[in-house]
Design goal:
The chain contains six helices and six strands; from the N terminus they run αααβααββαβββ. The protein is an alpha+beta fold. The protein folds into two domains: about 40 residues, Arc Repressor Mutant, subunit A (Orthogonal Bundle); about 90 residues, Alpha-Beta Plaits (2-Layer Sandwich). Helix 1 packs across helix 3. The longest helix is centred in the C-terminal third of the chain and has 14 residues.
Length: about 170
């Protein structure tokens, strides 16, 4: 094994990570076969990745449905001083009770560099529920953030996986 940074995945780890990204439900035997490794080696690499928290959790990719539409929330910090209690609530609870009441599920949240500071992808029943969620955020954190929301019309690829329904894209082209 060559010299690598402690946080840099080795080439063996990278092969296993790539297979997990393609299908995290694959058996260890299938991953080992695709990587050209023994079953024990793959098991050991996965356990090491989990223990160092380079990977955590396993998830399911779902199509948008009329019952669960996907939205992207863009948040920009205001110039004023932020109330530490509000920041703590936003970071820790992420408004769990409100999300539960509205049926909102947060899929991804990212602090980013650019025009906005935070991007959150979430699902809601429809645009009205999504707007209620955003309005509640604005009421909870007045003058602290500016918020913009967009609806996802169609997903081409989610978590490395292409949509199983590419023919639906023709309506958007």
């Amino acid at each position: 094994m060559g010299n690598t940074s402690k946080n840099q995945p080795t080439s063996d780890e990278q092969k296993v990570l790539s297979e997990l990204q393609k299908n995290s439900r694959n058996t260890i035997d299938a991953i080992a076969k695709n990587c050209g490794f023994s079953r024990q080696k793959v098991y050991r690499i996965i356990k090491q990745l989990e223990s160092t928290e380079k990977i955590w959790g396993y998830s399911v990719t779902m199509d948008e449905t009329p019952e669960k539409q996907k939205f992207i929330l863009f948040l920009k910090k205001g110039k004023g001083v932020h109330d530490p209690r509000q920041v703590k609530e936003l970071l820790n609870t992420q408004m769990d009770s409100l999300k539960e009441e509205l049926g909102v599920t947060v899929l991804h949240s990212y602090f980013i560099h650019g025009d906005y500071d935070l991007v959150t992808v979430f699902t809601a029943k429809d645009i009205m529920v999504a707007k209620k969620f955003v309005a509640a955020l604005i009421n909870k954190f007045p003058a602290t953030f500016s918020i913009r929301i967009n609806q996802v019309l169609y997903t081409l690829r989610e978590q490395y996986i292409r949509t199983p329904h590419p023919e639906q894209m023709k309506d958007f082209i």
